[in-house]
Each structure stands twice: as C-alpha cells, then as structure tokens.
Amino acid sequence: MIKIAQPQIGQEEINAVSAVLKSGQLASGENVLQFQRAFSEYLRHGFCIAVSSGTTALEIALRALGIKEGDKIITTAYSFIATANMIVHAGGIPLFADIDETTLNISADSIEQILQEHVGVKAIVIVHLFGQSCDMDKITEIANRHRLLLIEDCAQAHGAEWKGRKLGTFGDAGAFSFYPTKNMTTAEGGMVVMKDEKAAGFARQLIQHGIKGRNQFEFIGYNYRLSEIAAAIGLCQLKKLDHFNSVRRKNATYYDENIAHCNIIKPQEVRGVRHVYNQYALRILNGKRDAFIAYMEKEGIGTSIYYPYTIPEQACYRSTDFLEKEYDKRLEVTNRMKHEVVSIPVHPGVMQDEIERIVTAINHFEV
After folding, report:
1. Could you point out which of 216, 235, 261, 336 has its C-alpha 20 to 30 Å from the C-alpha of 100?
2. Phi and psi dihedrals of 8, rounded to 5?
3. What whole-number distance in Å separates Cα of residue 9 and Cα of residue 26?
4. What's the DSSP call for residue 105?
5. Contact 304, 80 (CB under 8 A)
6. Which long-range contacts (CB under 8 A, 24 or more apart) does 262-265 make?
7. How many Cβ atoms from other residues are within 10 Å of residue 142's Cβ?
8. Is 170 helix (H, G, I), strand (E, B) or coil?
9. Could you please report the per-residue DSSP string of 4-62?
10. pLDDT for 331-365, tens place per residue?
11. Pairing between β-strand 121-127 and β-strand 149-153 as defined by DSSP bridges
C-alpha cells in the first residue's frame, strides 16, 4: 500500500534526539530557544513561541490577543475541528463561513456576508487549507476595514506563500502544527507567531502557568511547553523543509500534467500563490467518491477524506446553544465539497514509480 502520509525522519533527527537524551536536559531548554529563533528567521517575521501542539498554538494565539467570553469570531466550516474548538476554549463564539470552490479556503464573500448579518465580530480565524494560501489581499482588506483581529491557522502551510510572502506573517498571529502528517514534524508540537512583542511576552507566560519569575505566577496559565526532544527534531526538519516542499511540488506537477479523467477535478494553484501541497486534494464528481476510494484501495494506493463533515454539523456543535439556527444556508459550496474531495499521496516519501502507478490507476478508473 502506498501510504497517504509518511514522516521523513533521517539519521540527523535520530542523532539530535540521542544528544538530548544523553544531555539529561529533556524539558524546555536551549534547543527550544534555538528552534524559536530559527523559525522566526525562516519566516523573516515576528516573535515565535514553541508549544505542545498546533491546537494549543491556536488557543494561545487567541488568548494572547485578548479574546474573551462571548467574542464572535468568523472561521471556516471546512477544516479540522481544532480550528473551531480553540475559539470555544478561548471563550469565543464561532460563526461559520463558506469556502471558495477553487481553493477550498474560506470565502472572502462569505466573510462579508457574516459581517452584514452580525454586529460585534471581534476576529477572523482563517485556515490555509491543504497547503494553499487564502486570498490574503481580500481578507486583510476586510480585517483592516472592520478593525478585526486576524489569526492564520497555518497547520498545513509551512513555507507556503502569498505573492512572495510566507504565510503566518499577515495576521496578528499565526499558528503552526508539527504533527507527523505535516510538511515538517517534531512528532508533536506547534508554533505561535505573534506580530506584537507585548502579546508574545504574554503568550510565553501563558504556556508556563502564567509565570513571572522563579516560583512566582502572575495569572493562571497552562503547561503548553515544547520539549527539548521535539525541538531537536524540529531544528533538523526546518533545515529540510524547503527540500520537502520542492519534492511535494514536483509530485503535484506530475499529477497536474498527467492525470486526465473527465470526472476528476485536480487542485488548482491560483495566481500569486506558492502551494506546498500538504495534500493533493482531488474532487470526484457524480457521486463516485466512495467507488474511487474502494478502487484505489484494491490498487494498493492509500487515500483519505479529511473533512467528510462540516464542523458545525458535528454532534458536539449541534448540541451547543450558540450555533446559528440557519448557519447551513450560507454553506452551499462547503456542503458540496464535503462529498467530493479526497486526497492522494503527494508526500516526499512517494517514489517516482509509485507516482506513475498512481496516475495510471486514476486514469483507468471507470465511472
């Protein structure tokens, strides 16, 4: 079976972990500090705080920006549930927007619609889904015009760009995940990117129980720190990230040029974007997605449906008292895409002969 995802761990990472274990310094230390500095230098932006996961990165970003109980926050209905969960954990109320049919990212028009329907919106949390940027010209203009906080969920977009500028640098905060399926990994971990130095200082306190000085705590915080082992892996992976992304792009280009099926729509890299293909997401038309998945499994090729349900239709959201009664009326595109989208292997571990095998199988899929 050709795997849908496969972390790329080399001898460098093994040696780095071994060195940490031998040092005896396992909790947050010099490797974490180096990783934060290196990530900030990679982005050429802001203040970076290493945390325990992409999920905690989102929560810390929201709390550091002052999100409080009852704040309304616009986000996408088509993402991993953590995007919305962290809004709720921070005390906010998620308002779910529709997506763009081409990029599958949050729709600027849908954001505008929600702003017309709701007063008192505080922020927008966008997701650069599958490795491609949202429309940052339109979204930053909306955020500026309405004086909204802007938070970028970059869990799938390490190294991706909008018009030559790396994602995670446009908003008031960005959040990255280093889960094993991402473009780079620390096994588990995340990174908060803050534009404001004061907010970054607050975030650093938040992840360490609100610490002010030795055995002194200014407020009630969390233990969301990244370990030295994870940071050591991250330092190695960050050096390889551009190479990993170039291989993903090469694999995607081969798919672009060779998949030819009248009932399958390939992802489109929009103008001005540098897509890093955390996933190569196909759309299978005419209700044939389940048949396609079964066929690919017989061919020994892994696939995955990442978001078969919208976030607000999950049971944990249907039971809340803040979910809008008629939210579904604005999710026309989302409700179509959740039945069509499926991802195929594009990661750097896929060999050229496997890429060719995948293309041949897709082109021979009988509808």
Report:
1. 261
2. -100, 90
3. 20
4. S
5. no
6. 263/288, 263/367, 264/292, 264/362, 264/365, 265/340
7. 18
8. coil
9. S------HHHHHHHHHHHHHS--SSSHHHHHHHHHHHHHHTSSEEEEES-HHHHHHHHH
10. 999 999 999 999 999 999 999 999 999 999 999 99
11. parallel
Residues found in the chain: 367
Q: How far is CA 200 from the centre of its chain?
A: 20
Residue 134: closest CA among 244, 270, 252: 270
> How far apart, in whole angstroms, are the C-alpha atoms of residue 296 and residue 292?
6
Q: How many CB atoms lie within 10 A of CB 353?
A: 8
Q: DSSP assignment, residue 132?
A: -
106 contacts 127 by C-beta, under 8 angstroms:
yes
So what's the pLDDT on residue 215? 85
pTM for the predicted model, two decimal places: 0.96
List of residues 6+ apart from 141 with CB closer than 8 A: none
Query: Which pLDDT band holds residue 213 (cuts at 50, 70, 90)?
Result: confident
CA distances from 174 to 77, 179, 192, 304, 350 (A): 19, 16, 6, 26, 29
Query: Distance between CA atoms of 152 and 62, rounded to whole angstroms?
Result: 11
Q: How is residue 330 annotated by DSSP? A: G
Contact 134/156 with Cβ under 8 angstroms?
no
The pLDDT tens digits of the residues spanning 108-145 come to 999 999 999 999 999 999 999 999 999 999 999 999 99
Which residue do the tokens 């370990």 mark?
Answer: 227
Q: State the pLDDT confidence band at 367, using cuts at 50, 70 and 90.
A: confident
Tokens at residue 149, please?
């906080």
Q: Is residue 46's pLDDT more than 90? A: no
Q: What is the identity of the amino acid at 226?
A: L
Q: What burial class does residue 205 get, using C-beta atoms within 10 Å of its C-beta: 0-12 exposed, 13-18 middle, 19+ buried?
A: middle
C-alpha dist (Å) from residue 199 to 12, 42, 52, 151, 226 = 34, 20, 19, 13, 19
Alpha-carbon distances of 74 from 25, 88, 106, 108, rounded to whole Å: 41, 12, 10, 11
Q: How many CB atoms are located within 10 Å of the residue 15 CB?
A: 11
DSSP state of 274: E
